[in-house]
Amino acid sequence: MRSIAEAVLTHAQGVPERPALFFEEQTISYGQLASEVKRFAHALTTWGVQPGDRVALFLENSPAFVVAYLGTQLARGIVVLVNTQYRQVELTHIFTDAGVRLGVTSAEGAEALQPLALPMLKTLVIAGKLADAPPAGAPEYIPFTAFVAQGEAAAQHPLPLLTPETPAILAYTSGTTGRAKGALLSQQNIIANITSLTAAWHWTRQDRLLLTLPLFHAHGLMVGLHGTLFIGASAVLRRTFDAAEVLATLRGDPSITLFFGVPTMYARLLAEAERQGAPAHRLRLFVSGSAPLSPQLFDTFERLFGQRILERYGMTETIMNLTNPYEGERRPGTVGGPFPGQEARIVDVRTRQPLPPGEIGEIEVRGPHVFAGYWYRPDATAEAFSANGWFKTGDLGWCSADGYYTITGRARELIISGGYNVYPREVEEVLAAHPAIAEIAVVGRPDPDLGEKVVAFVVAKAGHTPNAAEIIAFCREQLASYKKPRRVVFVEALPRNALGKVQKHLLTEPV
Description:
Mean pLDDT: 92
Radius of gyration: 23 Å
Helix content: 25-40%
Number of helices: 14
Strand order of the largest sheet: 2-1-11-10-12-13-14-15-16
Distance between the termini: 57 Å
Number of strands: 26
Largest sheet: 9 strands, mixed
Strand content: 25-35%
């Protein structure tokens, strides 16, 4: 198959009544989904979308998102994924940088886009209840159902042929330093990665995924939705994650076999399980990614749920890179080894030479899943690749002698204090075991004597009031003195993105 959209069409021909999506009160079969996707693709061509044009999806989880996503690709448009939490600065940058002429959004999303100066944006397809008519100068509004209906008349015309090299997705990086860059993924990247992933995780048509991750992010879209539709399985799609509702579903619906989440989700599920009790039946697979899963959370989940979470590692530019084994040891604190048909290695940050097992360096990956490059950023693309096609992930880690990779942090987050390397995750894992600490983030800050000093941002557990000296002493008992925090900052909460990943660049210290 050359695309996920074509996979849906193939399943629709063979098993048209098979459920593809469950959403609120709706059950959408593969036959229904394929019909809507084709109509949307034809509507795009009727509107004037040409192969390679960018169509933005600024939309929460819904069947409309799935239809617009697959329909855009079937019409050979490029989907621009837009985080629904983004506002003026991020939206202006992404829509302008990608040259978006048409977008799919909600009435609320249209309100966020109205005040922006986006001269190329001509039309917004509004899913859900249509708001008032757009103000003067704003893009044209078309209701989603009316837009899809435009594809009826053009249905007899053939759609452009998809090839492995056809650009499919423009996904913007989180932009922790500078402006976010658009990573351009091809159909080959998508299909190569999901073929390896579904094989590695033994995904079958009989599986049913509870999908609560946002579809604008690679984890929810390029793992959860892609895997489901590629293999011909089904997904119970939710607008958002709600721990109590998710646990109730897991407890009450034995047809659910898969759940994918981020560590924050698992922490909240565990808190609910302490109150409600864990599901009596066992799911086939729980997967965690997008942020490090602490060994403590891994162990607590196994104790309550009776299962070991499978942790994996991916990123926007490459989709999925490494995975703990489906069969075999799922080792806490590690992300396993490469998926089938992919490669990984550890190299010295300065010399770029491969390092032996056990030594920390930068993780590089190679394979058909690696993106083509950054959108109109040849300089950034060239900088991101080493010789022979190795992609520099920017993540530090080490590999054990038996092939398990451990991530120690971002290369740019490495703290060099007094000439010594300090890896934030190592300090965070120690402090996470402190009985009075709920959440922890460790960063480096300039220091006139040491060059950089270790600073710990701490969220205390309810009912606890730890002090800085106690926390520093706790760390000093277990790690070398140069790794202990030189300053502890107590905060109410850590800044996180939509998937719960801590945004360390937003951490600020009181003056």
